[in-house]
Design brief:
Layout lengths: L1 H12 L2 E4 L1 H5 L2 H5 L4 H6 L3 H8 L4 H14 L4 H10 L3 E3 L9 H10 L2 E4 L1 H12 L3 H9 L7 H5 L3 H18 L4 H10 L3 E3 L1 H7 L1
Antiparallel strand pairs: 1-2, 3-4
Length: 203
């Protein structure tokens, strides 16, 4: 589906996370998507429903677009018009110099990011360290190992944020030859966990 690929590329290239509240209030978003939630649940696809009811990452929003585009061919034109005709996007701002640790931390705070999603965080750590048991013990000793499973589930957003910032600072200082991986991750990661206040305002 060439047109769908163009839509996804459009979203990724512009660092779009999701539509702003203003876009949704215009009605086109709900006309395209919300009207289809009832038959979606009746089809038994509850996991997809829960993920897309309130998309909170770029990955969620792309998943929503791809799912509806494939499932409802009659809505494809409306989806294209919405994506290419909407200016009210929440877009990540990477204008800071994210080759420096201060620039990364400042960008995280400016974009209302708490931390990376648990799986994305784990993959980043594995890319940098190789994922060995020794590396895990090293990061645990430094109190900045990736938060996954119960470590994620039972942590507050404040703790997640502090832990992620500590992870960034430790990795940047301890693995200077892997700093480019951090920079690439900031620019390409689709799974960020945002602050509750931001989500409440924008979604």
């Amino acid at each position: 589906m060439e047109r769908l690929d163009q839509i996804v590329s459009f979203i990724r290239e512009r660092n779009i996370i999701c539509p702003k509240k203003e876009a949704k209030m215009k009605g086109s978003y709900y006309l395209i998507f919300d009207k289809m939630f009832e038959p979606w649940v009746l089809d038994g696809d509850k996991k997809a429903f829960e993920r897309c009811r309130r998309p909170t990452t770029q990955g969620d929003f792309i998943f929503l677009i791809e799912y509806f585009y494939k499932k409802y061919p009659e809505k494809r034109e409306a989806i294209e018009n919405f994506v290419f005709g909407t200016d009210d996007w929440h877009i990540l701002d990477w204008s800071e110099d994210i080759s420096t640790v201060d620039g990364i931390v400042d960008s995280i705070k400016k974009n209302n990011i708490i931390c990376a999603g648990p799986l994305a965080w784990l993959k980043l750590w594995e890319q940098i360290t190789g994922g060995s048991d020794a590396a895990l013990e090293e990061f645990r000793t430094a109190y900045c190992s990736p938060l996954i499973l119960s470590g994620w589930a039972f942590s507050s957003d404040e703790f997640r944020h502090e832990h992620f910032v500590r992870f960034i600072k430790y990795t940047h200082e301890t693995y200077p030859d892997k700093r480019h991986i951090l920079t690439d991750f900031m620019l390409t990661n689709e799974h960020w966990h945002f602050t509750f206040q931001f989500l409440r305002n924008e979604l």
